[in-house]
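User: Here's a chain of 437 residues. Predict its fold as tokens.
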Amino acid sequence: MTIEVRVPVLPESVADATLISWHKKLGDAVARDENLVDLETDKVVLEVPAPVSGVLKEIRLADGTTVTSGQILALIEEGAAANQAVAATPGAAAAPAGASAAATPGASTPGVPTPGAAKSTGPVGKASPAAKRVLEEHHVDAAAVAGSGRDGRVSKSDVVNYLAAKDAAPAASAQVPAAPGPSAPVAKIPAAPSARAPAAASRGARGDQRVPMTRLRARIAERLVQAQTTQALLTSFNEVDLKGVNELRARYKDQFEKQYGVKLGFMSFFTKACIEALKKFPSVNASVEGNDIVYHEYYDIGVAVSTDRGLIVPVLRDADTMNFAEIEKAIGNFASRARAGTITMDELTGGSFTITNGGVFGSLLSTPIVNSPQSAILGMHKTQDRPVVVDGQIVVRPMMYIALTYDHRIIDGREAVQFLVTVKQSLEDPARLVIGV
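Assistant: Prediction complete.
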């Protein structure tokens, strides 16, 4: 029996998706629930599993095709043997042994070669979706590229660097000319200064790599530009002495991890501190809809997570009801699943306020951009020992600059500054977070 493989129903906020990578070729055996193809939306990569076991009989759409809910992607011959796939396709011409299969008649993109025919034969399961696309475009075996990600995962930058080094190698190798014949006069040419050699090698490595934006990267670009063109963005700064937080973490870290199975990090403290400040200054937790200001009476805190595909913001729903351990577990879970590409669309939707931590990459100071339609975002930065004056004495303390970028249309400078002061007070005296003052 021939079974259709269709695009799953996309969330209401997502109009379409892009087919980015087939994991099977025409004629391959497939197992039920095995991932056949990746579809990229502007938020996540969706996997399309095989509905039955059998053989991939027909591939309807090529990599790079824009698809919508319910569209047919492929056909599976249920229970067929792997070698029967091409022959089983009605009207398909038999291909000689070793030749790539022709495009399946009736496919929605006539003339396009069957997806997967030009793919690398090497394993690409450890490569990110963006890296897979570049690998396939340049016919590179993923096994030849050293991955810099977690567990050796290959990122797009790894592939680009590999291609650049590969292109530079032939140019850097000097070609030895053939010996002239006995009657041929030979002119002696002075050797070029050695200082010029690196420049010549550098010129040989010059080139451009044109790679289409992923759906996520394009969406990030669109939303950042939208925020800057539709909101009156302004950033205020303050600094926080994290001595109290560090001491509390050091005192209870072992007991906390033993009891809850998760480390006591900084993010739970900052999340709690921001919620206390949001309660005092509700306009920072509001958004603009037309000529109305919508004051959100809940605290859904977005936490920015960096992935190979770009920055995404999973949301802690009702974060004000969560304790420190629940916040740490949720953030850790978000981070691991976001990088593995298994986070859900619902987890990336909504949010009333966002926290982003550039300090993990070494940023000392920045002006984060608001995650529209929200009206404010808190930027954390690197903790650095600095001399400060405490009670008239110069002491060294672990200091962090914090930044609040906000929509000045509905948040006054006074409120923004006082919001940061509230966050600062909560973090410098963590007992406030417990007793709620």
